[in-house]
Amino acid sequence: MAEIGIVTAQNFDRRRGQIHVYDGEGKGKSQAALGVVLRSIGLGIENAAPSRVLLVRFLKGPGRPYAEDSAIAALQRGFPHLIDQLRTGRGEFFGPEDITKFDRQEARRGWDVAKGALASGFYSVVVLDELNPVLDLGLLPVDEVVSTLRQKPEPMEVIITGRGAPKEIIDLADLHSEMRSMRQAEEVNRHNGQFHSSGIEIYTGAGKGKSTSALGRALQAIGRGISKDLSHRVLIMQWLKGGTGYTEDAAIRALRESYPDLVDHQRCGRDAIVWRGKQQEIDYVEAERGWELARAAMASGLYKTIIMDELNPTVDLELLDVDPIVQALLRKPRDTEIIITGRCHAPLPYFELASVHSEMVSHKHYAEQGADLRRGVDY
Which of 268, 265, 241 lies closest to 251 in space, CA to CA? Predict the structure, then answer.
């Protein structure tokens, strides 16, 4: 593990750090955690108090690649003195009947490091990736984990991911989002009787984690490019976000600061909520302007990943026609990945084109518990 720096979580923002839990069968849990990490790093840069991050990855030992490996590589290259990582476990799936002494030892090794980090206060963010299934398998005692988490330093953010979160962890959490899998195909999709590679992922729902999951995917694309030919350019296109001070702003700034030649960012819309039935002419103009930029970017083939943040509510509000979007998605370059986010009242026609569709369901949010919220951090 990298040497511990001198900037500690206590020197950062005195805002109370929350305990996040992302679970469920759907895709996006680890991605959401990495998006929160990126946001925290960006906020630390803005405050001249760098946020140090520890990633403890349970059940993800060597010998098998994981989707988030490239994203973590991008983080470590962009912020080499801020990211520590520990991987534990074996690189294969196993059930309760397959548990060995090695599995228990590896779970304990990871937890001992995490426990020390939680007690030390050296880190602003601690990610406990796949801790939920470790607890569900009985590899660690839940009561010990809960007791330790209750004593974490107040400003420290803790992010827990994985399927099967125990009730004790959910009860402790300040935020609990469940990723429900609406579709998780084998990276292929059937359309007009033919199979083709989709490369389209959709994140919907009222729960937290949609835009942060998309940012995790941006990190993955950049990381893949670093390991190859640096050609993995990313476009982040945001609708309904014409102002500043949004949750993901700090994360996007951090990305662009580290990878200025690989990340482009465009936004459109008013700095105001657009209510159904109260749309203004400028809302239609701005939505169309954003779509023309996104459509041209897709057709160009310049970008390996295009994030269309809040496209769903833009279409749901009838600020954009859906047919041109469907046609453009059908014609996109095969190696261009499209990530679409945002709430909507009902599935939209282009959802049928996606190979991955996760709905974020909000079971608990610290806003409901009277926590002090800050624009750019919590919303």
Answer: 265
